[in-house]
Amino acid sequence: MCFVKNLSDIAVIRDVLSRHGFRFSKSLGQNFLVNPGVCPRMAEECGASPETGVLEVGPGIGVLTAELAKRAGRVVSIELDQRLLPVLDETLADFSNVKIVNGDVMKLDLARLLAEEFPGMEVVVCANLPYYITSPVIMRLLEEKLPIASLTVMVQKEAAERLCALPGSRACGAVSAAVQYYAEPEVLFSVGRGSFVPQPNVDSAVIRFRIRKAPPVEVEDERAFFSLVKAAFGQRRKTVANSVSALLGLPKETVQRACEAAGVSPTARAEQLSMEQLAALSSAIGARRAGEEKGENQ
Fold first, then answer.
1. Does any domain span residue 149?
2. 216 lies in a domain?
3. Which of 58, 108, 226, 258 has the lowest CB atom count within 10 Å?
4. pLDDT band for position 32 (cuts 50, 70, 90)
5. pLDDT tens digits, residue range 85-136?
6. CA geometry: angle at 150 spanning 145 and 151, to 5°?
7. CA 75 to CA 107: how far, in whole Å?
8. Across the beta sheet with 183-191, what order do the strands follow?
């Protein structure tokens, strides 16, 4: 008998947690998924297969983990809360292809972990992410350019819309542009707040990021590009020229001339710019700064 099949039953969940003396932690954003239809769909959408390795972040009591284990060749789940380890030992006892790593996803050496746990396998990420750490986890997974094919994650619905917003749209922000640089994002489906225990105050959505083999735009200096993006969106009510000038500490005239060179209106706002325009502006600012420094040194 596979005990895990009952983990969408709230009574079973409460019994398991009670026997292990577990209490939910608000600081860790613990809302465990209990909707029986969501986890199988997530496991399918992430592309788990016998040839695939899956990295999961925050397995909770193992409902999604079990569905991944039924489909994937190997599943490694990172869990921060030590109190959940004996719970997971019980709920995932039937699966020999699951490993739980007790640690902080923001501190672990993920490149080493993937190399050691998934040799020769395509790797995907699938997770129900705590709301408080959604963007930091996603951006770390993207920025480190890890050998993963995709991320399929459940996040707060508002965060999903922001993360998947297209450049040039009103909802776009600095994190949206960064996501677009590394991946092709899409919202897959919504998940109501009643799908969790305890029930959160907001609805959720499952989103998928397919990792790009190459960025959609060429930039000479990625660090400078992302600094420009962060500055451009840093004061959304201001024009691009004013926001970039203020937050990068550049003379306004330098930024205005860079805008002209990049074909960007200085009075435009960041959410109106395409990825190509952001990249062109970053290059133009870099060129003007280099020219000014050269002039000063002569």
1. yes
2. no
3. 108
4. confident
5. 999 999 999 999 999 999 999 999 999 999 999 999 999 999 998 888 899 9
6. 95
7. 20
8. 98-102, 74-79, 52-57, 122-128, 150-156, 204-211, 183-191
- Measured at the CA of 237, the angle between CA 236 and CA 240, to 5 degrees, comes to 65
Q: Which helix (H) or strand (E) holds 102?
A: strand 98-102
173-207 pLDDT per residue, tens: 999 999 999 999 999 999 999 888 888 899 999 99
Any domain includes 274: yes
- Single residue among 211, 241, 264 that ends a domain in this structure: 211
156 beta partners:
204
Given the structure tokens 């969790």, which residue do they identify?
Answer: 196
Strands 204-211 and 183-191: antiparallel
Q: β-pairing, 74-79 with 150-156?
A: unpaired
Determine the angle formed by the axes of helices 222-232 and 275-297, rounding to 10 degrees. 110
The domain in which residue 252 lies consists of 222-297
Give residue for tokens 């997971």.
Answer: 88
> What is the number of other CB atoms lying within 10 angstroms of the CB of residue 288?
18
Is 64 part of any domain? yes
Question: How many structural domains comprise the chain?
Answer: 2
